[in-house]
Request: fold
Amino acid sequence: MAKRESSLGDKVAVDMTPMIDVVFQLMSFFMCSLKVVAPEGDFDIRMPLGVAAAAAPDDQQVPPVRVKLTAGPDGSLAGIAMNGTPVADFEELRKRIIGLVGADTGPNSLAERTEVELDCDYGLKYVNVVRAITSVSGKVQDGQIVELIKKIKFTPPKRG
Amino acid sequence: MARKQGGSPSSTDIDMTPMIDMTFQLITFFMFVMNFSEAEQDERIQLPLSQLAKPVEGAVEAPITLQLTNSGSVIYAGELVAVRDIGGYLEREKSVMLDAGREPSAATVIVRADGRAKAGEVQEIIRICQEKGFERFALRAQYDEG
Reply:
């Protein structure tokens, strides 16, 4: 130490090696534990068994909107029908839902009381179900989500 | 090089400051992007995309995650199970909940189904859960930025 001080003047040389070792270890730990996760969200569905039949109809109740999704032989979407009338695509389905419930989306509004019943073919690919739920449950307007119908249920599955 | 060697014959001093600065910045970056969430995820599942699937804030109450693969089997707690066999596992979940003094209707069944799976199988899972008394479901989708 004395020899060093004499050669470097009044500068004190600190040994950086342990610090750099630790810093590199920390960095490799954080790098290895990094998990790239795509953001995910949920569609909440409340569907108790047998309550639909037991619930007493009241004047607040609105008849459910029946959305039928038909599958082609390979599981792709063959057709959409809303309350029995065919719909061209999911965009039109959304327009029809907006036409049905209107712009009223506040508490106890028509949109909140209306229920959608999804009737899907067994072999239909699930991605179409999510697209249908996306169409009926809301729309994106200027980066904001406008909620439409929140109550969604499924008809019982039928194998075939 | 020759001049440097002439200046300090025994050792070369490298300026470590920029390297340490950068390394600390990298550490800070990795520390911030690290997430400790215990969300059950599996790379075998390709979730369907949806613009409305905004990430949820806060934890789901009593979550039970069922992941449906493309081939029609369920991943439950890391194990591959056939759809018709999940009833037994759910029965166990139910008894654990009842032991803890909670009704199964308070639990949320998170369904992470592959976009290529059959809709009927998802409904089958929901029906089996309903029979065990679960009634809250969350269909998970990947957020599509547009």
Notes: The helical segments of chain A are 2-8, 17-32, 51-54, 90-101, 110-113, 126-137. Residues 1-5 of chain A have pLDDT under 50 and may be disordered.
